[in-house]
């Protein structure tokens, strides 16, 4: 049996999404086929509107419905600190904590020469421009503590040091509620080296 | 930060899909936001067309572009045997083997009283009607060898026995290329009980 063409097309398009392989795509397509037309239409519209109604903030490259994002437009936020993150996903994660009140700068990736992502592919030039035009006291590097994230943080720290801005980074350590017994050696090793004094 | 509404809607709609949770939905939505409009439009169109152009075969409930599916319309197929499966997914799996040349009957699920799926929710009435109007010699129950699949197969076998049709089922055993050492106990146990004679 040839798989019916509309099904094959849907499977092909779905399997272009990250983490969705051919088998998952087939299952998703057949699931949608069993739902009512209204639900499928709602999903399709939501995806199209996502692209139509959302843009990237011209200042920090967070997602935004207008030229500038909600965070950049919010006068109550502390504009003297910029948190540098890899992606919009990270902005959402940090915002969910309600612990940060500064601005952001979304790099749009991390340095990864093997995957062809170099300095000019990230919004680093734009970050430097912000440092010239905005009054910034602190750059908070909240990049993931993996090889690429650390490399990028190191690169940025060296680049920004001459400017004289304070540079901080997200600490590594055990997760809250974590367990020394089950943590990986790299995490425990790093936690030991960067132990903090109880005051 | 409130998540921008178009993004929140897309996340909500995506997370209604099976096996996709809130976090995956967010990652998929942000991925699409970074693709060009053309690709997102192709995906959305494919999903809408899936529902618009595909129906279920009026005879066997396989997917079909017209009233009857390709398999039911194919005169070269052996119409004296009906393979009963849970879902269209299973039809595709069996067709891929090129080993089966009969017709199908898609139940649209398996008996699962705990999940509220009872006899009247499956296409069992329709299967009985086919047995009255078509000349069928064999019903091949190709349901999954799990609790619900076995229960359904047992129910169907008892229901169909009085009709006098030959009833077969898919055998359980080790997968081709499998290894006794790594197979689970239930599979090995069942394989031992249903061992076959070498001829």
Description:
The structure is a homodimer of 199-residue chains. The first copy, chain A, has 199 residues and is an alpha/beta fold. Chain A folds into two domains: 5-53, Orthogonal Bundle (Helicase, Ruva Protein, domain 3), CATH 1.10.8.420; 73-197, 3-Layer(aba) Sandwich (Dna Topoisomerase Vi A Subunit, Chain: A, domain 2). Chain A has helices spanning 5-14, 22-33, 37-53, 70-73, 88-97, 124-133, 147-160, 185-193; strands at residues 55-56, 63-64, 78-85, 102-106, 138-141, 166-169. In chain A, the strands form two sheets. In chain A, strands 4-3-5-6 form a four-stranded parallel β-sheet. The first copy, chain A, has a two-stranded antiparallel ribbon with strand order 1-2. In chain A, helix 1 (5-14) crosses helix 2. At the A-B interface, helix 1, helix 2, helix 3, strand 2 and helix 5 of A face helix 1, helix 2, helix 3, strand 2 and helix 5 of B.
